[in-house]
Specification:
- The complex is a heterodimer of chains A (230) and B (257).
- Chain A is mostly helical and 230 residues long.
- Chain A has one domain: MetI-like fold (Orthogonal Bundle).
- Chain A is built from 9 helices and no strands.
- The longest helix of chain A has 31 residues.
- With 257 residues, chain B is an alpha/beta fold.
- Chain B has a single domain, classed as P-loop containing nucleotide triphosphate hydrolases (Rossmann fold, 3-Layer(aba) Sandwich), CATH 3.40.50.300.
- A 6-stranded mixed beta sheet of chain B has the order 6-7-8-3-9-10, sandwiched between helices.
- In chain B, helix 3 runs parallel beside helix 5 and helix 4 packs across helix 5.
- The longest helix of chain B is centred in the C-terminal third of the chain and has 20 residues.
- The chains are: A mainly alpha (230), B alpha/beta (257).
- At the A-B interface, helix 6 and helix 7 of A face helix 2, strand 6 and helix 3 of B.
Chain lengths: 230, 257
């Protein structure tokens, strides 16, 4: 029992890192995703094609490989940039979590693009026309009417993607970020009791996911209340 | 005829190969209520939608209260300006689903006219009272009946104090039982001297409220005139055809009752 509690506490102590990874990946991913979704909806010439290519490439790449590419690739780019511009950039100062966040954000952004695009496109065109008829600009219409409605519709998908982010953040352990998975590895190597420790960490992941699931459904229920026609 | 509130010149619109509007000229005086009648597919709704650029006309110009926009090279700012001189009541109400009824009617005042929220709220409640929805101010659109939603849509339009209000078949999506309350509301608004262009199928309503009826068919204005003239004694064969069909349909439903 003591073993269970000790390890549980040790792993919980880095749970904030796991949550930080998931939340930042979702926030950055949603920002990129919103931009890509709007580019796709309005079919902006040329950039639209770049976005399609971006989506295809990232969607077809395992997160683990994105993680490695960010971890090994970005320092190299920065290094050659530093040499060619004789700027004093040092990659050693950058904590590894930075690269993990980039990789996870890219991965989440492509799925969020789809979730946001489909949600926006499910809003009847009459809503946009009504905005125009009272004299709003397209930006005002999106900000005040279209996006708020689309968010409600997107919540179930976003909630899934968020839980995915929590679980995928475990891959950050491979680039030496000490989050829950990495901490479990450390504990396991020290005690040789792999099975027990991985059961403990899986319970923790499960608990975190359950918590967030609960939060998301509460948000959804609150936003749906009286607001949307079914 | 010196003070036209709305003037359409040579409006053309095609969807693909289908020529929907074939050069419409229409002038609406200040305070006039113009009702556009015509069979389905005659281009009535499209014409109305070109006025505030929900459809962009292929050719022609639109003047609203001395502000002229050439449809072909309309800039974003021009379109916005034109839209702010007009307001529209939609067939499907199109109330903002994420906002309460009060927020719906206030939205334009706050966002477009930059009026302070407190004042907008007061004006919003006033106008809701006028259309008989004061007690629904905090309800969401989907909690209202179709007739109530449409009255809220009308409130949203008149609160902006536009030069022209465009009504796009305001009663077509309603249960027959609810048509009356909406028409009464529109009639009340018409009496306040607002300039209105109404596309509708309600001939008896047109007779009551219109200063002038415009009859459209196949993308053209066939004939126009005061209701007592156009509905009773039309000049063109096409108009007679349309009216006789409508009145005979009316007759048959009357029989079944």
């Amino acid at each position: 029992m003591q073993f269970f509690v000790d390890n549980l506490l040790a792993i919980i102590s880095v749970a904030p890192v796991t949550i930080l990874l998931a939340v930042t990946a979702m926030v950055i991913g949603a920002t990129i995703g919103l931009g890509c979704a709007i580019i796709q909806i309005y079919k902006l010439p040329f950039i639209n094609r770049l976005v399609s290519l971006y989506l295809a490439v990232i969607r077809g790449t395992p997160v683990l490989i994105l993680m490695f590419l960010a971890y090994y690739g970005i320092p190299q780019i920065l290094f050659s940039l530093a040499q060619s511009t004789s700027l004093n950039i040092s990659v050693n100062a950058v904590p590894p979590i930075f690269f993990a966040i980039i990789a996870l954000s890219l991965d989440r952004s492509v799925y969020l693009t789809q979730a946001i695009r489909s949600a926006i496109q499910s809003i009847p065109n009459g809503q946009l026309e009504a905005c125009y008829s009272v004299g709003m600009t397209t930006f005002q219409a999106y900000k005040r009417v279209i996006i708020p409605q689309a968010l409600v519709i997107a919540i179930p998908n976003v909630s899934n993607l968020f839980l995915g982010a929590v679980k995928e953040s475990s891959l950050a352990s491979i680039v030496s970020v000490v989050e829950m998975m990495n901490m479990s590895n450390i504990q396991a190597v020290n005690s040789y009791r792999y099975t027990e420790i991985f059961i403990i960490v899986s319970l923790l992941y499960w608990g975190i996911c359950l918590g967030f699931e609960f939060i998301f459904s509460a948000i959804e229920r609150r936003l749906m209340k009286g607001k949307m026609t079914v | 005829m010196s003070n036209p509130m709305l003037q359409l010149r040579d409006i053309h619109k095609a969807f693909g190969t289908q020529h929907v509007l074939k050069g419409i000229n229409l002038t609406v005086e200040k305070g006039e209520v113009v009702v556009i009648l015509g069979p389905s597919g005659s281009g009535k709704t499209t014409l109305l939608r070109t006025v505030n650029f929900l459809e962009k006309a292929d050719r022609g110009s639109i003047t609203a209260n001395q502000f002229t926009v050439e449809c072909l090279d309309a800039k974003k700012q021009d379109v916005l300006m034109l839209r702010r001189k007009t307001a529209m009541v939609f067939q499907n109400y199109n109330l903002f689903a994420n906002k309460t009824i009060l927020e719906n009617v206030m939205e334009g005042l706050i966002i477009v006219k930059k009026i302070k929220k407190k004042i907008a709220e007061k004006k919003g409640l006033e106008v809701l009272d006028k259309v008989g929805l004061a007690d629904k101010a905090n309800a969401y659109p989907n909690q209202l009946s179709g007739g109530q939603q449409q009255r809220a849509g009308i409130a949203r339009a008149i609160l902006l104090n536009p030069d022209v209000i465009l009504f796009d078949e305001p009663t077509s999506a309603l249960d027959p039982e609810l048509v009356g309350e909406v028409l009464t509301t529109i009639k009340k608004i018409a009496q306040t001297g607002v300039t209105m262009v109404v596309v509708t199928h309600e001939v008896s309503f047109a007779k009551e409220v219109a200063n002038r009826i415009v009859f459209m068919a196949d993308g053209n204005i066939v004939e126009q005139g005061p209701p007592e003239k156009l509905l009773v004694n039309p000049e063109k064969e096409r108009t007679k055809q349309f009216l006789s069909r409508i009145t005979s349909e009316k007759g048959s439903t009357d029989f079944s009752n």
